[in-house]
Amino acid sequence: MRIPVIAGNWKLFKTIGESITLVDELKPLVANNHGVEIIVAPVFTALSRVYDAIEGSNILLAAQDCYWEEEGAFTGEVAPRQLKDAGCSYVIIGHSERRQYFGETDLTVNRKTGAAIAAGLNVIVCVGELLAERELDQTFSVIETQIKGGLSGLTAEDLTHVVIAYEPVWAIGTGKTATDAQAQEVHIFIRQLVARLFNPSVADAVRILYGGSVKPDNVKGLMARPDIDGALVGGASLKAESFAAIAGFNV
Ligand code: PGA
């Protein structure tokens, strides 16, 4: 039994005050959502205050990135243990925007993932193909390279702290969702790959989220697919009503 995950990636939106307002609105709307893990990922500066606001609720906190060193002369970076300290239980690693704009590679994803797990965080590792890659029929090979690179050297035990997010880059923020069938076919491919790289029981247990223009009106269809275990939500996570409606896909 895989517990579904609905995670809201707030990207570079919201001040501290706006972040607290959003979780204060969200809390009562999702208080009765049982059997689903609900996660919000504000900007770094809001993490600790949002943590105070969600304490005792069923909402968990994630950061949107981290560095792989524990401490040192690395100006501008934030270490996994500092995210733990701020109240995070999750960190998102390898989002396509980090890959596109900030030089993230499978190697840095791998380092960050290992460091975050070692610090006691759960990691949402993001993968996804560009439109050009899909059009060239390279989706599966791109995903395979990203998963192999990102999860390289991790143990089966480490994988209990990993959630994989499949986010086709062409579907992010574009209003173009992959069809349920397009998503499912990549999700099962990822699950089979994890079975080969680790073992079948790890593959059975790993949660694989879909991301890319998930909205209240398409979440049910996606979640009905056997290998789609949740959603990583950008735009629709910025409003309490729409995020709560997505998190309530099962009610
Ligand atoms: P979107 O973003 O829901 O706005 O498409 C998803 C994501 O980038 O995680």
Nutshell version of this structure?
This protein has twelve helices and eight strands.
Polypeptide structure, described:
By secondary structure, the chain is an alpha/beta fold. The protein has 12 helices and 8 strands. It has helices spanning 16-30, 47-54, 80-85, 96-101, 106-118, 131-135, 139-150, 156-159, 180-197, 200-205, 219-223, 240-247, and strands at 5-9, 37-41, 59-63, 90-93, 122-127, 162-166, 207-211, 230-233. Strands 1-2-3-4-5-6-7-8 form an 8-stranded parallel barrel, surrounded by 6 helices. Helix 1 runs parallel beside helix 2 (47-54), helix 5 (106-118) crosses helix 7 (139-150) and helix 7 (139-150) crosses helix 9 (180-197). The longest helix is centred in the C-terminal third of the chain and has 18 residues, at 180-197. The two termini are 18 Å apart. The model has no long low-confidence stretch (mean pLDDT 97). 2-phosphoglycolic acid binds next to strand 8.
Q: Which band does the percent of strand residues land in?
A: 15-25%
Average of the residue pLDDT scores: 97
End-to-end separation: 18 Å
Strand order within the widest beta sheet? 1-2-3-4-5-6-7-8
Q: List the helices and strands in order.
A: EHEHEHEHHEHHHEHHEHEH
Helix segment tally: 12
Shape: globular
Low-confidence stretches: none
Q: What Rg, in angstroms, do the CA atoms define?
A: 17 Å
Coarse structural class: alpha/beta
Describe the oligomeric state of these chains in a short phrase.
single chain
- Unique bound compounds: 2-phosphoglycolic acid
Number of strands: 8
State the helicity in percent bands.
Answer: 40-55%
Q: Can you summarize the main beta sheet? A: 8 strands, parallel, barrel
